[in-house]
């Protein structure tokens, strides 16, 4: 049985889910269906992933066959940078709901604290880095709080159960919370961040959890998530699966390195969203809370932190979120 995290919105989120980033369109539907059969109930997607139609097809197949009810699933998506203007937030959400074939989302996150120039859906979707002018980046002057207020309205309209943020640093969260609290608004339920032994961010996690915000980790396996993206940084970094520290801990507990990496996060109260095409690993990733890392294990993993970030908007267009 997968443990759950109680969110400040009153809803409950499974601690272990299935990540939809980089799911190939041709196989995404079947992968989602198989993950539901395996027992996954949280599915973490995004508009920018370009596969929400296929994810929705997998969900529909599982529901139609009686494997699961909609209310038993926890479906996550993320508002892309091109739709931060309040007048475009609901347009983007409606596109996501239509693609997924759903009436509501369980969680909708602001994907990045970056506001690109709006690109109409009929012009290009998902727009990615396209801002209407070839490869040139263009931005809109939309404060995060304005985008947040638009999301709050959609919670009240019943289209979203919980709202949150992704790829925000501490100072941005601190400022956003002050704005929300000054208005008596809805506080973020979840912060999603890159999190693995090479990038542990303990102070950010301590602060956020202390504010009653749950944390979800992505890229729990570190460079493994970025190798297929031709990331030189990832290729030049030793894989965590073969790292002596992780392998030693895995051997001690009779677990795989992947299970150790996921348990390291869940033992700190963090949710994880791994994905796998391998049926055996699907089951292994879902069942990582049946053992406990020792204090010595935790101390050894802490030594691996080198502040190495693989997903950094500074590499896109010198966008200074994490500098």
TrEMBL record:
GO terms for molecular function: D-xylose reductase (NADPH) activity. Residues 16-305 form the NADP-dependent oxidoreductase domain. It catalyses: xylitol + NADP(+) = D-xylose + NADPH + H(+); xylitol + NAD(+) = D-xylose + NADH + H(+). One of its GO terms (biological process) is D-xylose metabolic process. Pathway: Carbohydrate metabolism; D-xylose degradation. PROSITE patterns: ALDOKETO_REDUCTASE_1 (PS00798), ALDOKETO_REDUCTASE_2 (PS00062), ALDOKETO_REDUCTASE_3 (PS00063), PROKAR_LIPOPROTEIN (PS51257). Its EC number is 1.1.1.307. InterPro entries: AKR (IPR020471), AKR2B1 (IPR044486), Aldo/ket_reductase_CS (IPR018170), NAD(P)_OxRdtase_dom_sf (IPR036812), NADP_OxRdtase_dom (IPR023210). Keywords: Carbohydrate metabolism, Oxidoreductase, Xylose metabolism. The record marks 78 as: Lowers pKa of active site Tyr. Gene3D superfamilies: NADP-dependent oxidoreductase domain. SUPFAM superfamilies: NAD(P)-linked oxidoreductase (SSF51430). Substrate binds at residue 111. The active site is at residue 49. PANTHER family: ALDO/KETO REDUCTASE. Belongs to the aldo/keto reductase family. This is D-xylose reductase [NAD(P)H]. It comes from Candida verbasci.
